[in-house]
Amino acid sequence: MALEKKTDTIKSIDFYASLIESIAEGIVVIGLDKRVLFINNMAKSLIGLQAEIIEGMPCNTLMNTDLCSKNCPLDSNDNNISCSQASYFMNIQLHKKDASPIPLCLNVAPLHDAHGNIIGIIENFRPMSEAIKVIESLEKSNIILSQEKSRIDSIVTSLADGVFTVDNNLRITSFNKGMEKLTGLRESDVTGLTCRDILNADNCASNCPLSHTLKNGYGLANVMERIVSKSGGTIPVLISTAVLKEGAVNKGLIATIRDASEIEKLRKEVNNRYRFSNIVGKSVPIQQIFELIETLRDTDCAVLIEGESGTGKELVARAIHHESDRRNKPFVKVNCSAIVEGLFESELFGHVRGAFTGAVKDKIGKFELAEGGTIFLDEIGEMPMALQSKLLRVIQEKEFEKVGDTKTIKVDARVIAATNRNLQDEIKTNNFREDLYYRLCIVPVTMPPLRERREDIPLLVNHFIEKCSIKIPNKQKIVEITSTALSALMDYDWPGNIRELENAVEHAYIRSKTNKIDLDSLPHSIIKNNLKEPLNNFIASPQTGGDEMEKLQLKALLTKYSGNKTKVAKDLGLSRTTLWRRFKKHNLPETI
To answer: Is residue 426 helix, strand or coil?
Structure first.
C-alpha cells in the first residue's frame, strides 16, 4: 500500500512538472534572499544557458535585467512591501550572456506557501521579437518530494497568463488565477464544464484548437480567438495548446490564454497606417496619393481625378474635402453622366420661376448648395460642350447666373472633377475644351487600377470583411479568408476594380457556410479564372505572347509573394538557377 501511494505521488509530481514545462514561457522563481529557487528549460534557452546548475545563484547574476537596477520588486525594508503587491506588467531588456539585449514582456507576481505567506516572487517572460511556441512536456523525473509538488502548484496558480486543463472530453479540470482574472469566473464554478460552455470562442463551433490537438496529438501555438467574459464582453486572446501525458497515456490537454487586447490595438494602429479616409492600400501608388491628399489640404485649387471605373475616385475626392478647412461645409456630388442634357445648366446653377416650361418655382443649383464647401463633378467628360464654357467662367470668376435670371451670384466652392475617359483624347476630337481641362487639372490625381496594385488586395479584403460584419450582423461572423481563396483573388484581373472586389467579398461573405471565406464561396467568374492553365505552363509556353508577357507574369508573381523569389520558383516549378536566369534576362532583381 505504501509503495502504491509513493508511486501515485511521483506520478502526480511528474504531471505538475510536465505542466510547467508545457508552458511556452520562461519561468523563474526567486526567493526573498534574491536567489534562484527554480528555472524552467524555456527560461534557460531564452537567457542563453546550457546545462549549468542555476538553483541557488543570485538572480541579478543570472538575468541582469534593467529591472534589477531600477525597480527590483524585492528591494524594500522588510522584503514584503514590494512583493506583496498584485501582479504587474512592464517591458524590460534582458541581457544574455553574450551581452546582446532582448526586448521582453515580464510578468511579476508574489509566490505564497500553503499558509498564504510570501516566500518569494515568480517571474514569467517571453520575447516580443518572435511568437512564443508551445513546447511539449520535457523530462523532469527527479522531483519526488511533496513540497516540490506544492511549489509547482503555486507557480501555475501565480502565472499572470491564463492556464487551464481539460480531460479527453474537453471538460475543465483546472483553471488558474490568470483565467479567473481574464474571464471573471471562478475555478469552482467552471470545473467539470466543457471549455466551449465557458469560453464561447469564435472557433468553438468549428476549427477548435483543443479539438484539433486532441484529434491529431500535437499542439497549436498562438491561435487568435475572441472569447466571451462573464460580463458578456468580447476579449481578443491568443490560445496555445499541448497534450498532457503520463507516460504514453494521454491524460487531457493544457491550454494557455494570453490577453491580446494590446496586440489587437497595435494591429489596428498598423492597419491605420494603410488607411486614409476609407482609402485602403500600402502600395507605392496609393501611399503617394495619401501624401498628395495631405499636400492639398492647405490649398483651394481645382483637382482632376482620373482613373478607370471602380478605382475609388469619389473616395479620394471626399478625402481631399475632409482633410481641408472646408470639412464642416457641404460636399455636393454631381454625376454628370446621369443628368439629361437639357437640364445640365439648371442642375448646376439653378433657375428662377418661369425660366422655361415646367419651371414652376425657383430652384437652387448644385454650386449654390456647395457654398463654402466642395462640389464634386463626377464623370466630367460627359458634360456637354455648350455648358463647359459656363463652368469655366465659374471656376475663373467664381460667379454665375441662374437660368432665366440676370442677377449675378458669387460662389465660393472648391471644384474637384473626376473622369474615366482620357480627356486629352476628348480634346483632340473636340468633345472637351482644352482651356477647361487645364483649369481643372491644376493638380492631377491618377488612380491606379487594382490589377496594378495587387499587394493591396489582402488589406482591401480584410477591410470589406469588416464592413460586411457590420452590414450583415445576423450572419455567422467571418474571421478569415483561406489562402486558396486569397490566391484566386490575387490572380484575378479585376476589370471592375475595387468596386468589383467589394461585391465579390460581400458575395462570398453571404455564401460562406463557415467562419471562413473559401474558394467555393467566391463568385463563379473568379473560380473559373482560377481553374485556367497553371502559371508555370503559361510562362514556359512559347505561344503565350513573348518575352514581355513573361516579364509581366514574373513581376505579378513577385507582387503576389511580396518579393519572395523562393516561393516564385516553387509556384513556377523552376529551379532557383533557372529562375535566376529569367530574372537576369528581364533585368529584374537577381538575388534569391
So the answer is: helix
